[in-house]
């Protein structure tokens, strides 16, 4: 068998498309860092007049042998057992914090649920939440189970269902890309037990898992070489934060020459989901003005998000909003064009550019909350499970997310500066990786040690200092070390992996 090429039968009209656009199913080695060889597979096209072409498939390096079916069967029971154990642990943790409540819960979530429970379907005529109609439907679905627990517990159950959906979708991404059961199981467990996920839904009862679920479904659909516009439109119809994936979706439409009329699905899905509330008697102006009302709720450039506006806090509000919108739009268009023109292929690349879209938008846009990096935090876990070289990205994202959540939950705002600096390093190296991606996955142990030690010191200082705003020498040292070690970890990870790829060639 020739191990240097892969034969595919492709219709004549498809020969000029980018390779990954017609290759299905995607070969596992295009994204799986578990082999150090080249492989071949023969697949015949189903259409008439097919022509054989030869494609060379490069593989990431980590192990010196391929994943054989027998090995998959041996590791599958372990993967299933790990998922079941972590699933149970996640349920226990969610049960333990079911009554935890913050100001948002008392001011918004509990009154919303109570209104839905007391008024039933007739309540749809009223704007009893400041979310889109989809969330109102979920509250109405939960209301008949009021006898099972407290209102906040039922609200949190809604989020938990979509958290489970997010974990399942990412596990499917990893499985389809690697065919390694243990990696898929680890992806499921990492998301189900991720610190930011536990903060967002189980503790706060927030709904970010809902829009993120549809965002991840959209990315997974594109990774399977299908059109993912409809789930993206659903994400935008749930919460405005779904638009963070917009540059990625536009880039994929341009890349695959999908008709731009598909973009009409975004307002179309929103209109379809709004039909029940319109029939119930809610005004059209009220339904169409939901996102505008949300945008005018707060007048601050930063709402505890670890983004660029932590570093530019002195900017006037009006000027900051304009600058942020321009920067985000320009960067989003640049990313879309890059996706459309890039010659890189495979599911790993698709997930990588999706991650870039999900971090660039909340990083550059003003008025962002600490929760708005949720989509990137989950997608980066999937990327790390596909290629271990991206493990620092996923870990750093979780650390920065927790620092941001502490700013709202405990009033420890001093953690936002180091978190913003670390996210700046993440954005820089993610963009750099898009231009010069490598496929090795060795991790620098000394950089990991420095990162863990510095972050432990930073968290210890912040928790000890509490809500104090005293910029002491100890704080400056802890913040500087954490940012420096984050930069070193990302730099060393990329440099070592590049060196490893160069030597293997």
Model description:
The protein has 505 residues and is mostly helical. It is 63% helix and 4% strand. The protein has helices at residues 19-22, 69-96, 103-119, 133-142, 151-178, 181-192, 195-203, 208-223, 229-238, 246-255, 265-280, 284-288, 290-295, 317-341, 347-364, 374-386, 391-409, 416-435, 445-465, 473-504, and strands spanning 6-11, 42-43, 50-55, 302-303, 368-369. Strands 2-1-3 form a 3-stranded mixed beta sheet, with no helix packed on it. A two-stranded parallel sheet has the order 4-5. The two termini are 22 Å apart.
Outline the secondary-structure elements.
Blueprint (H helix, E strand, L loop, with lengths): L5 E6 L7 H4 L19 E2 L6 E6 L13 H28 L6 H17 L13 H10 L8 H28 L2 H12 L2 H9 L4 H16 L5 H10 L7 H10 L9 H16 L3 H5 L1 H6 L6 E2 L13 H25 L5 H18 L3 E2 L4 H13 L4 H19 L6 H20 L9 H21 L7 H32 L1
Parallel strand pairs: 1-2, 4-5
Antiparallel strand pairs: 1-3
Helix pairs in contact: 2-6, 3-4, 5-6, 5-7, 5-8, 5-16, 6-16, 7-17, 8-9, 8-15, 8-16, 9-11, 10-14, 10-15, 14-15, 15-16, 15-18, 16-17, 17-18, 18-20, 19-20
Total count of helical runs of at least 4 residues: 20
Binned strand content: under 5%
Categorize the overall geometry.
globular
Largest beta sheet: strand ordering: 2-1-3
Terminal-residue CA separation: 22 Å
Main sheet?
3 strands, mixed
The chain-level structural class is: mainly alpha
Tally of strands: 5
Instruction: Report the mean per-residue pLDDT as an integer.
Output: 84
Give Rg in angstroms: 23 Å
Uncertain spans: 1-66, 496-505
Could you estimate the helical fraction of the residues in percent?
Answer: 55-70%
List the helices and strands in order: EHEEHHHHHHHHHHHHEHHEHHHHH
